[in-house]
Design goal:
By secondary structure, the protein is an alpha+beta fold. It has two domains: 95 residues, no CATH class; 66 residues, no CATH class. Helices cover 34% and strands 18% of the residues. The protein is built from five helices and seven strands; from the N terminus they run E-E-H-H-H-H-E-E-H-E-E-E. Strands 4-3-5-6-7 form a five-stranded antiparallel sheet. Strands 1-2 form a two-stranded antiparallel ribbon. The longest helix is centred in the middle third of the chain and has 16 residues. The model has no long low-confidence stretch (mean pLDDT 92).
Length: 181
Amino acid sequence: MKSTAAQITVTTFASEIHPEVTSERLEDGELLAWADAHPTAWKIVTGHKSAPFGKKSCTYIGWAQGSDAPSAIIERLRTFRSEGRGREGSHPGSSIFEWRARYTMKHFEDKGFKGGHFRQWDGEYERHSLSLDYTPKTLDEVVDAFVKWCVNGPCRYEMREVRLDGKCVRRYDAQGQEVPA
């Protein structure tokens, strides 16, 4: 029998802001450096204010929802950054998913920031739905982005109302013209 001994060096990457979040994967080291350079990203994925990107968001796969394990936090960071970058080859800002990640990063610290569930109602059924963040000042901008996504997508339905957490925030007549809610 013959045996050999080898010495192995393991490199561990750790966040400077959250030193408890570590990984031995090189790509995670780059992600942690990005998050440290964008401290708001840490607040978004470890907090509860953001509907699409907060700690318990349904945007994340099951094991990453709500967990404080370093691997779960890293997965939430990866998802958030990936959505903000958009799909490879897409025009910047062309996706509602890219738009909402950029919106969240830009407005997270704004007064009144919170998240909610937006739904399209066609007069009979609720159709499209999406978790989005908003502020009282930017609610119209967010509703506009949601409506644009609904009416320009492959599945198009009549737009009669936009509902936020079950409450009508915008109403349309049968011709598609906005009317007081």
